[in-house]
Amino acid sequence: MNNHIKCPKCGKEIVIAEAIRAEVESDLKKDIESSIRNEAEVEVGQAKKELAESLSLIRELKNKDKDREVEMQKRLTMEEEKIKFEALKTYREEHELKEQEKEKIIADLKKDLEAAQRKATQGSQQTQGEVMELELEEMLRREFPDDEISEVKKGVRGADVTQTVKDKMGRTCGRILWESKNAQWSEGWLAKLRDDQREAKAELAVLVVENAPEGVTTFTYRDRVWVTKRKFAVPLALALRFDLVHLYFEKMSNVGKDEKMEVLYQYLTGSEFKHRIEAIVDAFSNLQETVEKEKRYFSVKWAREEKEIRKIIDSTHGMWGDLQAVTNRSLPSIKSLELEGGEDKDQIS
Q1: In its keyword annotation, does this UniProt entry include Coiled coil (predicted)?
Q2: Alpha-carbon distance 179 to 239, whole Å?
Q3: Which residues share a beta bridge with 227?
Q4: Residue range 294-325, pLDDT digits in tens
Q5: CA 7 to chain centre
Q6: Which residues contact 31 (CB under 8 A, 6 or more apart)?
Q7: CA-to-CA distance for 24 and 11, rounded, in angstroms?
Q8: Among 142, 132, 337, which Cα is nearest to 238's?
Q9: pLDDT value at position 206?
Q10: CB 209 within 8 A of CB 230
Q11: In the chain, what is the straight-line distance between the N-terminal and C-terminal CA atoms, in Å?
Q12: Smallest Cα–Cα separation from 284: which of 307, 312, 242?
């Protein structure tokens, strides 16, 4: 049996067994390659599928991470807002508490300041009152060196100063009670000074005020008390002292003469005596104003003073003549008030 065959293409003789084996091997190789290819494709497909699933899972995880991040961001934002709100609330509460504390401190300081101002005002008024009292006492001592000026001690009931009027012989002619006030006017001062006057047994009472009652520009006689502004105290004191001295002489010269005392009383309480007192006070007031203004009106000072002094002299002569007429010329002779010929105005008339 021939185990060889000839290749129709190349003419080479091929052993049949080898040819079959080669074909079988070729087919088997193809089958194996196809199987491997298929398996590879399946594996590749499976891998792709798994990869796709993995990618999908990754994307899902990424989305979940984003959602969680968004949710976390929301939570963080809400927590931050909550913290801010709580912090703002705490700040406002603390700030409000501090504001209330500050307002309370300011209110307390205002109260303390008002209290201090009231104390300062009271202390200032008291100090001013003491200064005015000392000024009044010094003025009376300076203007009337022959009189006895007594200060009422602190804590003792009474007025500020007692002026005991004395004549040239040192005889007591009467008492003037002085009270000074440097506050807003009060009607109660008059009643209190009248009580002090009765207790001191003084003939006259004078209230010297810085703030006079309405309608009073110089001085006035009000409810049995003389009320004067501070700058008119000296002229009024001169007039009242003059009145007390002459009233004392009248009492001494008219002891037992009731009718003369009645005439003198009528004269002293009449309008003529009042006008003469006012003329004297006005003259001294004008003199005082002139002295205060002498720097500016020095050129006319002497003429004004001479005129006012002439008024005083004339008023004094007039008063002396009236008193001589009332007392039937029983008053002692005063050379300076008589005419050069030894006759006074009443003798001439």
Answers
A1: yes
A2: 17
A3: 207, 220
A4: 766 665 667 777 788 888 888 887 887 877 77
A5: 141
A6: none
A7: 22
A8: 142
A9: 92
A10: yes
A11: 218
A12: 312
Residue 112 amino acid letter:
D
Question: In whole angstroms, what is the distance from residue 175 CA to residue 242 CA?
Answer: 12
Angle between helices 233-253 and 298-326 (to 10 degrees): 20
The Cα–Cα gap between 183 and 113 comes to 22
Assess contact for 179 and 140: CB atoms under 8 A. Answer: no
Residues 6+ apart with CB under 8 A from 318: 276
For tokens 């008119």, name the residue.
232
Burial (CB count within 10 angstroms: exposed 0-12, middle 13-18, buried 19+), residue 54:
exposed
Whether the Cβ atoms of residue 200 and residue 177 lie closer than 8 Å to each other: yes
Note the pTM of the prediction, 2 decimals: 0.41
- CA–CA distance, 308 with 323 (Å, rounded to integer): 22
Q: Phi-psi category of 196—alpha, beta or left, where left has phi over 0 and alpha has psi -120 to 50?
A: alpha
Mean pLDDT by 10 residues, the chain (349 residues): 59 60 68 74 76 78 77 82 81 77 82 72 57 84 88 68 88 89 86 87 89 85 88 88 86 65 73 79 78 66 76 81 77 68 44
Q: Which amino acid is at 184?
A: Q
- Measure the CA–CA gap between 102 and 123, rounded to whole angstroms: 30
Q: Please give the Cα distance from 108 to 15 (Å, whole number).
A: 132
